[in-house]
Amino acid sequence: MKTHILLIDDDKDELTFLMDALKLAQHDDGFKCTYASNAKQAIEMLRHLVPDIILVDFQMPGTNGLHFLSMINNQPSLQRTRKYLYSAFVNEIMSKSAVKLGASGCIKKTFKITELADELEKIVSTTPEPAYVFSGQQ
Questions:
Q1: pTM, entire model
Q2: How many Cβ atoms from other residues are within 10 Å of residue 12's Cβ?
Q3: Residue 138: which residues within 8 A CB-CB, separation 6 or more?
Q4: Once rounded to an integer, what is the mean pLDDT over residues 55-83?
């Protein structure tokens, strides 16, 4: 069965970049992607779907990624969904805050599509236990 990923980002270029990285990522069954341009739209979508993975941008107008995580943290239908905060500004404090709000980890934005594809492969193959994921860092 295809892994269903909900991408939440207000930047269409970032969504395109994520989609391109997913095309490069190796996954036996492939991916099904749904996307939302803001937290409000994503909340509405989550009333009708349960993705396997949610990737949410930190910096969005209105509701940032951490606030979005707090909004969905206690939804029973999403308890098995792996959630990742996606940001250019990932640090230890942000990562710990995200995990406290139910995220499995954070992904640091990168301009190298192969690095992002590698991180997405790791996420898809990872068991849903809390972990920190830092893309592009040595």
A1: 0.86
A2: 10
A3: none
A4: 94
pLDDT of residue 26: 73
Residue in the structure block whose two tokens are 């406290």: 100
User: 3-125, what's its fold?
Assistant: Rossmann fold (3.40.50)
Which of helix, strand or coil describes residue 42?
A: helix
How far is Cα 47 from Cα 67, in angstroms, rounded to an integer? 18
String of DSSP letters for 78-98: GTTSEEEEEETT--HHHHHHH
Q: With a cut of 50, say whether residue 24 has pLDDT above it.
A: yes
Please give the Cα distance from 40 to 24 (Å, whole number). Answer: 29
Domain boundaries, the chain: 3-125
In angstroms, rounded to a whole number, what is the distance separating the alpha carbons of residues 11 and 75?
26
Q: pLDDT of 80-135, one tens digit each?
A: 999 999 998 888 999 999 999 999 999 988 889 999 888 888 888 765 544 344 44
Q: What DSSP line would sit under 101-131, residue for residue?
A: TT-SEEEE--S-HHHHHHHHHHHHHS-SS--
Distance, in Å, from the CA atom of 50 to the CA atom of 111, rounded to the nearest integer, reads 29
Two structure tokens written together for 102 = 């139910």
